[in-house]
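Format notes (please read before filing issues)

Several people have asked whether sequences and structure tokens are stored in separate files. They are not. Every record keeps both together, in the order shown below: the sequence lines, then the token lines. Line labels are part of the format and must not be stripped during preprocessing.
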Amino acid sequence: MSIPKLRQYQAHRNTRHAQGLLELICCCDDLWGIDGALKQRIAEQALTILRQSRPVGSSRAHWLYVRGKALSITEHHRAAIKSFRASLKMDPTRIAGYLSLAWCLKRIDRVDQSILVLNKALKRSPQHAKIRFNQACYLSLAGQPHLAATELAIALELDPSLRWKVSTERDFDPIRHHPAFDAALQVIV
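Then the structure lines:
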């Protein structure tokens, strides 16, 4: 195997290893909850693994996305935003990149930019329920109850299983008692 091929293979392996660590964090956190300090340590380990190689070509977009995920878990939101933007520039079809970028923008009080990012995602995938649901959250935070309710109704129509998240999603608190929000929840799925 040539040196460039070996480096490419190692970069791919390191990216997959780091991605696996991040998936472990998310899975364990969703199922049982995970200690914040432990999440930080695992995400830092993923970043260390990613630093060991910097892939080129088509695999670079995925590496940047995984790096962005690790940075967002370690609450380095501005660095994560930079990584997600670079990833999306190279691969604008990665819907998870738009969702992650919007999430980080929200964390630094840039809800207006989160909405714009998800508008781009919706142009690529208008039937994606999770984009619609998150857009409803951000529109709620932006004080746009009618648009938020419309997006929420579409999300629930596309994926009725999202209904259980509505009652605990704090992003809907600003519009929770608005008639448009109530109407969105009346959508029969």
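For reference, the curators noted about this record: The radius of gyration is 18 Å. Residues 156 and 164 are 10 Å apart (CA to CA).
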